[in-house]
Design a protein that fits this description.
five-stranded mixed β-barrel; OB fold (Dihydrolipoamide Acetyltransferase, E2P); two-stranded antiparallel sheet; alpha+beta; about 35% strand; 10 strands
Length: about 210
């Protein structure tokens, strides 16, 4: 009888060992090759629904839905860390980015940049370029670091540097009804105009100015 129980116990342990471990969410391996986007405009590529990179994935109990591949070459106009709110569970840092005319320090030196409450703000005593050009050449970007290298780079980058950022624009939701939607265009302003980027690469580029 004891031998029988030993055999049964061994079989049970074998099944436990072979069973998949569902305690941890699968790691999302975004196959994104960084593209050196021109400094005058980000590069965005929509994802086909059948593409592997377009499949939703779990991160910290949130579901992320990739919408497009995105590549920025832009000047870092501001960096703000957040520790409060559901959004900070995924995105601890917002980057204010400027491209085109807003990457030119002769322009941005005349514009005061600030960030708060997940918003990007600017003001100037006299417009150095048309208002619409400012609005469509800068963005507040919520960064979700995809790996430790991006986390480390976020802590090192400084305001004024030229950055190359590659990743995916993502929508976010959770089972309790929380949702967070990314902007899909650089032409919008106001609520909902911020990009949410699952960032796979961040690098510092030489400053062309």
């Amino acid at each position: 009888m004891l031998k029988l129980f030993s055999v049964i116990g061994g079989i049970v342990l074998l099944f436990i060992w072979l069973a998949p471990d569902n305690s941890a969410p699968p790691e999302h391996q975004a196959n994104i090759t960084p593209i050196l986007a021109p400094l005058d405009a980000p590069v965005q590529k929509l994802l086909s629904k059948s593409a592997q990179n377009a499949q939703p994935f779990l991160l910290n109990e949130y579901t992320l839905q990739p919408k497009a591949e995105i590549h920025f070459s832009a000047r870092l106009l501001g960096k703000e860390r957040y520790r409060l709110g559901r959004e900070s569970d995924l995105s601890p840092v917002d980057l204010a980015l400027g491209w085109g005319a807003m990457a030119n320090p002769q322009i941005t030196d005349n514009i005061k940049i600030s960030q708060s409450n997940r918003w990007f703000h600017w003001k100037t005593d006299q417009l150095p370029i048309p208002r619409r050009q400012i609005e469509t050449s800068a963005a507040n970007v919520h960064i979700i670091p995809a790996n430790q290298a991006v986390k480390d780079q976020l802590s090192r980058i400084d305001e004024g540097e030229i950055l190359q950022i590659s990743g995916q624009l993502v929508d976010i939701q959770s089972a309790d009804g929380f949702f967070w939607r990314t902007s899909m265009t650089r032409q919008d302003v106001g609520a909902g105009a911020c990009e949410i980027i699952y960032a796979t690469h961040i690098d510092v580029l030489p400053d062309p100015f």
